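In response to reviewer comment 3 from the previous cycle, which asked for concrete evidence that the modeling workflow produces usable outputs, we include below a single protein chain processed end to end. The sequence was submitted unchanged, and the resulting structure tokens are shown without manual editing.
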Amino acid sequence: MTEREWILLNPGPANTSREVKEALVTPDLCHREPEFFEVMRDCRERLVRLAGGGDGFAAVLFTGSGTAAVEAAVSSAVPPEGGLLVVDNGVYGDRLLRIARAHGIRNRALSYSVTTPARPDDVRAALREDRALSHVVVVHHETTTGLLNPVAEIARAAAREGRRVLVDAMSSLFGEPLDITPDGIDFVMASANKCLQGVPGVSFVLGRRSALDALRGRAPRSVYLDLYQHYVTQEGDNTPFTPAVQVLHAMRQALLELEKETVVERIMRYAENARVVRRGLAALGFEILVPEDARSSILTTFRLLPGIAYDPLHDAMKRRGYIIYAGQGDIRKYAFRVANMGTLTPRDMHGVVEAFGAALAELRGQGGR
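The workflow returned the following structure tokens.
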């Protein structure tokens, strides 16, 4: 029986091309043979080139979900005598705090509501108040709501105070404009299965080489997530542990497709996807949770309509081939999320709007139950 293909409106894993899926079916290969190291090296070089990092940056690969790369960077970057200022305006900011606490890293939260972007002046003030805070970490695109934080301005503020910055760009790299090179930014973390349009299983850190080299000799807080060990081993065309061989083949295909489309064109396609779905759902009566000037072009959080609960709406959309996504935490009670990353096109998003119209008609015909 042929498996049904879903249109995924969740913020990763995203819909992928047929060629990316086919790349998973590769001959069995030992991960310590030169044929595999060529694939790994190719992926690392293309990641840096497509992200605009230049010779001063290197990509470090991890087999694991995006949180593996985030935890590797956080646990490795902050020295024992240092501290971490965490921008927290969503679930993933909170996760950064939990990572810091789990590794015994001194931390301070700079907290906002889930619809309020961080203010660079607040970052500057917090760093001046506490000189022991050596690093700042911020989520670029907080997929809790679809909020964008002003990474460039935060990095500038931190650099002027002599601090270093880590950027969780998990769901924004290659989908939103992001310059990874400004002074202050040392590490940018992302994964294969978001805007890169690969499959889950590989995450990565784009690191400034000077910051990676500075980790030499520091006692690691983790064995598996030791950023420096992965870096030096991969630089020597080797790997400390068994990587996801097949997933990296798919990742290479996704990188080739991104090169062909170009990062600029992908960002433009996502922006048009978002415009289509937002205009269409607004016509159906839905309101967007995040203020217009703080929204990403990758995900939108819509308020539920009166009398329409999330679970029936999800199921009605799924019957039509579309997978929407619940809000996180208390947001689930009054809102839901629609992402538009992956191989989706504006034409697909017109289909999404039509499906929402049909789903609402169905649910209202049942009294909203």
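The chain has two domains: 7-12+263-365, 18-260. We consider this sufficient to address the reviewer's concern, and the full set will be provided in the supplementary archive.
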